[in-house]
Request: fold
Amino acid sequence: MTVQELELGSETLLEGVMATIRQRIAGRVLTPGAKLPSIRAFANTMRVSKSTVVEAYERLVAEGVIRSKPGAGFFVAAPLAPLSLAEIGPRLDRAVDPLWVSRQALETGDSVLKPGCGWLPPSWMPETAIRRALKSASKLEASGLTDYGTPLGHRPLRQLLARRLGEHGVEASPDQIILTESGTQAIDLLCRFLIEPGDTVVVDDPCYFNFHALLRAHRAEVVSVPYTPSGPDLEKFAEVLATHRPRLYITNSGLHNPTSATLSPVVAHRLLKLAEQAGLTIVEDDIFADFEHTPAPRLAAFDGLERVVQIGSFSKTLSASIRCGFIAAPRGWIEGLVDLKIATTFGGPSLAAELVFAMLKDGSYRKHMEALRERLARSMNETAARLGEIGITPWIEPQAGMFLWCRLPDGIDAAEVAQKSLQQEIVLAPGNVFSHAGTANGFMRFNVSQCEDARLFKVLPAIMRQCVVGR
Amino acid sequence: MTVQELELGSETLLEGVMATIRQRIAGRVLTPGAKLPSIRAFANTMRVSKSTVVEAYERLVAEGVIRSKPGAGFFVAAPLAPLSLAEIGPRLDRAVDPLWVSRQALETGDSVLKPGCGWLPPSWMPETAIRRALKSASKLEASGLTDYGTPLGHRPLRQLLARRLGEHGVEASPDQIILTESGTQAIDLLCRFLIEPGDTVVVDDPCYFNFHALLRAHRAEVVSVPYTPSGPDLEKFAEVLATHRPRLYITNSGLHNPTSATLSPVVAHRLLKLAEQAGLTIVEDDIFADFEHTPAPRLAAFDGLERVVQIGSFSKTLSASIRCGFIAAPRGWIEGLVDLKIATTFGGPSLAAELVFAMLKDGSYRKHMEALRERLARSMNETAARLGEIGITPWIEPQAGMFLWCRLPDGIDAAEVAQKSLQQEIVLAPGNVFSHAGTANGFMRFNVSQCEDARLFKVLPAIMRQCVVGR
Reply:
């Protein structure tokens, strides 16, 4: 028995080991058929004795969660294996993984504060325009109300998007634009088209946490490059290209999530030169484009949609309930992407595209965004000030957007703060869910539009005092 | 030089070889990084000389479509390689592959007849109910109009679906139901959850052609089992289980697509016993459920959602423009499926679920479906009669649904008929797009709701006369 076992009692540890395995299966870290770690290796990882791991594996076999293949080891059973799920809901005990913030933010009710979530409160969204769009949609001709979308999707919307992309310097014809069910589905479709299981993909560190979850679903190898206030660290980027020969780089260059940093022209130019030399493809997730006061450089604009593909959506600016995103891709990709889109979603957005088009086609959208940008700027200043008072300091002063990437006072564990805050109905976004390297545990992302409730600034200081590392 | 080359001229053949490779890349038969056949093997396949293949490969390298790795062979370049695409539209020259019918049916305009498509004409859909639902949606509270859906999706709709599934003998609690963007996306999500690249999946022969395309996107090995008027051929099914040890079986058991056959209780029972012995998981695609007059047995009902998962959607009965489907799954799967859904689509249907719920919650849906079933029954009889007059005979007399699976007169090549019909603006569904074994080229699927135009019965006989095999 290890010291731990003497302290905690082996039953507790045994349950801990079993829970860890169940969670890895539920979180798809271990997929059906995957081999479990050897008894010895897992005993070391968990810092328990081998006999504890043996017992845990045997009980999980009895439960049908894993299978034992004599001589070969232990394997995750087909997902028929009951993962003993109670009710879906925010689970206080869930470990902080890439999906942690998504789950908490999507699951929790309206009483909950969500400074950690990635979208605006309903009261900030263009409610009137949406209601108007729904009323006018009720007068569409029957085919628009009942038919599948065309393979590329709603042509007038694609024409409008082509013009809007042009305003950001991205030259795309409407036939280079494919409508998708969402921005996430756009990236998912591109991953299917561009990478195979085992391919290496570069992400920023920190980056949008769902990139980690999505790439895991594609069984990709992920490497990350530190992000600076003007873009990725180019020296490190070049090293990664040389060492790992990645096929793909996924980034937000408009307003970077979570840092709200913007790409500088020189970094954009050099990054593209590196990508060209290495034959690297780039997915530029530009869903925050319309939050900018003055557009920063876009990789897709510099590159002319040759090796850079751009994606966008309307979830952050119009509605996350009306599902519609898009891909602006090199001409040569369209045929293959459309086949893949039909195979995996068949229709694509149809009514949703009609609704988005109705909201974008007149001047009301520009007015809405102007008001939104001003409101966010005010909120950004206020939130930065209030966070400063409790010792939480912004990494940079963002030019625009909704996110403040902040450093916590020294020695505070962001994950622990997030866990404890959830018990008080506050959903936070701790740094390491954004960091592949796991180096951002002293950071936290705040969505300023979700930080207006005074309760946040009462509860946070108290919780932080309980979370000093090595306390 | 081969005889062919002397006849056709090597330039023509060279272009043919290059076109074949481009098409395999566009169709994802060859995915990025995939190794091309050896010069010798491909020369045999194409029945051309090795020098022609060498020349073709070299030109494609020059174009950047493929790459040469000295000593290792030729490989598909990253999809940056231009596939020289003109404009997306129905292409008369496209080979009849699993996506052929989808592409033609989704792409073509209203002037085109679509007996080959898989959905009802707009005039058959509940237009008034959709307009009413849109108007009432315009009065929803802001969060319903702007927020992402919850991880499982719209609870009242899930409760309603649980009751409706119960009416078909499928016992599922609302917490075992996950809303998805569509029926196709539901199956896609399940494939991601249940299979890994290289896993073997069983499908019916014939089966819904998009299963082939979807499984190709998942890099699965497909084996097929002949379908009989009462379900899959159990003897063959048992052989396949023994020989190929598949992980998954995907089928429509309610009304089978394309045959409109229904599962008999004894076949359902025996099939499940075989599945249990082999540890096989089954995805039961039940999107045609509401077209039945009297419900046939459901695998999910017999099984009690242990190894059978059921999916459904409203694209065929309410609207294909309002994207919403669902999964009814074993409890133990929900947690993992939800994580995967968030990773790959984030939100899931939100407004779409509100609209579907508005249309399902009152009695109007049942009235609509009653009328639809009667109209389809009449149309089924008329179409069968008119097809009979031109020598096209139904395989079975379906109890319900929209599909007639028909045998063409002896010696007629269905793919050729479909190709020629497209030139006359008629989209047909030739048998082999449904057949993994490629044994259905004498068959064709007719959607009776799309066969009311007399032009079809004038044009078809003329075309069939041109398409006698070996003419």
User: Anything to note?
Assistant: Chain A touches chain B through 101 residues (CB under 8 Å). The radius of gyration of chain A is 24 Å. The longest helix of chain A spans residues 364-389. Chain A has three domains: 3-84, 98-118+366-469, 125-362.
